[in-house]
Amino acid sequence: MIHELLLALSGYPGTIFTWNKRTGLQVSQDLPFLHPSETSVLNRLSKLGSDYMRFTEFIEQHTGHVHQQEHHMNQQNQTVLHGIYLRAFCTGLDSMLQPYRQALLDLEREFLGDPHLTISHVNYKLDQIHGCQILETVYKHSCGGLPPVRMALEKILAVCHGVMYKQLAAWMLHGLLLDQNEEFFVKQGPSAGGAAANQEEEDEDLGLGGLSGKQLRELQDLRLIEEENMLAPSLQQFSLRTEMLPSYIPIRVAEKILFVGESVQMFENHTHGPSRAGSILKHQEDTFATELHKLKQQPLFSLVDFENLIDRIRSTVAEHLWTLMVEESDLLEQLKIIKDFYLLGRGELYQVFIDLAQHMLKTPPTAVTEHDVNVAFQQAAHKVLLDDDNLLPLLHLTIDYQGKDCKEATGPRDGATPPQDTSPREVPPTGWAALGLTYKVQWPLHILFTPAVLEKYNVVFRYLLSVRRVQSQLQHCWALQMQRKHLKSTQMDAVKWRLRNHMAFLIDNLQYYLQVDVLESQFSQLLQQINSTRDFESIRLAHDHFLSNLLAQSFILLKPVFHCLNEILELCQSFCSMVSQSMAPLDERGTAQLDLLVKGFRRQSSLLFKILSSVRNHQINSDLAQLLLRLDYNKYYTQAGGTLGR
Fold first, then answer.
1. Whole-angstrom Cα distance, residue 138 to residue 359?
2. Residue 430 to residues 407, 417, 466, Cα–Cα distance (Å)
3. Residue 424: is the preceding peptide bond cis (ω within 30°)?
4. Which helix H or strand E contains 19, and what residues bound it?
5. Domain layout of the chain by residue ranges
6. What is the rounded CA–CA span in Å between residue 301 and residue 319?
7. What are phi and psi of 206, to 5 degrees?
8. Which DSSP helix (H) or strand (E) runs through 385?
9. DSSP readout, 572-607?
10. 171 vs 163: CA distance, rounded Å
11. Any idea what DSSP says for residue 278?
12. Does the keyword Cytoplasm apply (predicted)?
């Protein structure tokens, strides 16, 4: 039936699609296999075919048999209009129909290539203008030079703008999206292009040679791509329908409209307590409604007046949100909590926790692991005198083990970070690999600390915790070394402890870089930016930049460096495991294992040095240069040929 539809749309009706001079092209009424909804869609498409057939009939009438008309000119009493100008008009009209004919040809090719396509695909490809798209079409045609046409279209546009202003008033002043037919440029749900497509990670062997300029540019581009994917806007309840946005309304203005409506709706739906009662617009709804009505009465749309009013409404909402966030909800204290627990600001807490949880997290997790680690976390908090009865219940360590979803029927805790969907899940090698942290965010801070934002903090949390844990294990190895100091040392012992010292040197400097050069520096800048504004959007932007810089400067987004550092951490863990398992001199198997660890550490440390040095020389990443400065401050790394562990 698809081919019958395409033929009918091309001007060739049949038994399924019939042609009537008065009603045009229609679906035959006696087809029992068609659902009423399908008939409705087909009849809507048939209107396009009807218009096309009338156009082609007009064109053929005046250009189809020119020579015959001229031959019989004197023999028949012609009443039909004719002439070269009319034929030229018809030629131009026919050329305007060519894109429509081409679209039908493209559809036929698509259906031949994929027979499973449906009528909805035809409807989508040939869809007519709809909703706010009508504003764009009328506006473009009103820009012509003929005064009568321009004035008529401007009047039509003013009437259409009246509908838009009513939708704007409902959305911006009351948080109501009155759009049953999906005509407005704000919609419920995420943007179609908002979620970045997941890209497969390619395991690249970068080798040990110097990196070329092209490879360095690829590294930088890779970082930017990863940053865009990691920091893409989290799934929102509302988003812009950009195809409906008229071109004379800039995207920046539409984003302000979206922000105001979302904020008003959030406030109306989550008003709690007397201090939060009232209006986020400071009881200026009537004033703003009056000003929107004045804009509606203007015969011509003025972008300057329109944007000025949108800016005033946005400023009112943003300032009120700033008051709620900073003054009533104590945003600075909440950020300190995020820093203390997600970013390991309370280092003494996590040092004790690592010691308590090491034995239960070194094996694959089970159903009771999550309970056990939370008990250990509470014990660690008690040991470091962190007994805040209001704070600790909001924090919860999670273990994402295989089969957890089917065993836990309940959803995530309110305001907590939901676990990532990694089905089908693989069993993590250790509990550390499945460890996460959730924080129950209080209203209205949930609009800043969204689940997606907290998940990004969790990525940083796991990375920082792994570095801290390896550092702790290497310190434990040093303590074991001191216990054996009185014993006679072998040559392999010297190799072992020289490797331990080089590992500790690298990890200690990495830890210092992350905590001082990245976390403390970026957090200080964030607090300065928050204290220098009274605008919520500025706070959100500053926080987004803070999180972006954390992910970038810790190299989570720069996969080659991040992969190299993770390999080094795993080598350090394997070394510590080997040392802690036996204090006796190494046997043949232990010697072979140590030799593999030495070679692996040399290879990865050399790769890291070459990446850092190459990037520093090309001056495209100051973060890598800063880490290299920490590692090679006295040129020891350089003098060792860029290789540690020798």
1. 71
2. 20, 21, 12
3. yes
4. strand 17-20
5. 1-64+81-125, 142-189+234-329, 459-645
6. 28
7. -75, -10
8. none
9. HHHHHHHHHH--SPP-HHHHHHHHHHHHHHHHHHHH
10. 12
11. S
12. yes
Extended beta strands in 432-505, E state: 435-439
SS3 content of the chain, % helix, strand, coil (to 5): 65, 5, 35
Q: Which residues are CB-contacts of 445 (< 8 A; sequence separation ≥ 6)?
A: 325, 329, 331, 334
Task: State yes or no: pLDDT of 195 exceeds 60.
Answer: no
CA 612 to chain centre: 29
Mean pLDDT of the chain: 77
User: What is the residue type of 521?
Assistant: S
- Compute the distance between CA of residue 343 and CA of residue 462 in angstroms, rounded to an integer: 9
Opening angle at CA 433, ends 431 and 437, nearest 5: 85
Q: Which residues contact 288 (CB under 8 A, 6 or more apart)?
A: 172, 173, 281, 309, 312, 313
For residue 370, give every residue at least 6 positions away whose Cβ sits within 8 Å of its Cβ, in sequence order, or none: 397, 398, 399, 401
Least confident of 148-152, 236-240, 552-556: 236-240
Whether the CB-CB separation of 468 and 511 falls below 8 Å is answered with yes
Backbone angles phi, psi at 186, to 5 degrees: -115, 135
Kindly report the pTM of this predicted structure. 0.67
Q: What is the pLDDT of residues 250-293, one digit of tens each?
A: 999 999 999 888 888 877 766 544 344 346 776 788 889 899 99
- φ, ψ of residue 439 to 5 degrees: the values are -140, 125
Query: What is the Cα–Cα distance from 309 to 522, expressed in whole angstroms?
Result: 35
For the chain, the straight-line distance linking the first and the last C-alpha, in angstroms and rounded, comes to 75
| Angstrom distances, CA of residue 575 to CA of 401, 483, 582 | 26, 18, 12
Quote the CA–CA distance of 151 and 28 in Å, as a whole number.
Answer: 42
Could you tell me the sign of the dihedral formed by the alpha carbons of 342, 346, 348, 349, in that order?
negative
The C-alpha atoms of residue 33 and residue 589 are separated, in whole angstroms, by 76
Question: Within 13 Å, how many C-alpha atoms sit on residue 409's CB side?
Answer: 0
Least Cα distance to 528 among 512, 515, 548, 545 occurs for: 545
- Taking alpha carbons only, the member of 190, 310, 316 closest to residue 256 is 310
Residues 518, 622: contact at Cβ < 8 Å? no
Q: What is the Cα–Cα distance from 391 to 246, expressed in whole angstroms?
A: 48
How far apart are the C-alpha atoms of 388 and 488, rounded to whole Å?
Answer: 50
CB 28 within 8 A of CB 126: no
Return all residues near 525 (Cβ < 8 A) that are at least 6 apart. Answer: 546
Q: Kindly list the distances between the CA atom of residue 595 and the CA atoms of 580, 591, 604, 641, in Å, as whole numbers in the listed order.
A: 17, 6, 14, 19
**HSE, side-chain direction, 13 A CA sphere, residue 638:** 10
What is the Cα gyration radius of the chain? 34
In sequence order, what DSSP letters do the residues of 181-240 get, joined into one string?
A: TS-SSEEES--TTTSPPP-PPP-----SSPPPHHHHHHHHHHHHHHHHHHTSPPPPSEEE
pLDDT digits (tens, 9 = 90+) for 19-56: 777 777 777 777 767 777 777 777 777 788 888 888 88
Query: What CATH number is given for 459-645 in this structure?
Result: 1.20.120.1900
Three-state secondary-structure class, residue 149 = helix
> What are φ and ψ of residue 19, in 5° steps?
-110, 130
**Three-state SS annotation for 103-145:** HHHHHHHHHHHCCCCCHHHHHHHCCCCCCCHHHHHHHHHHCCC
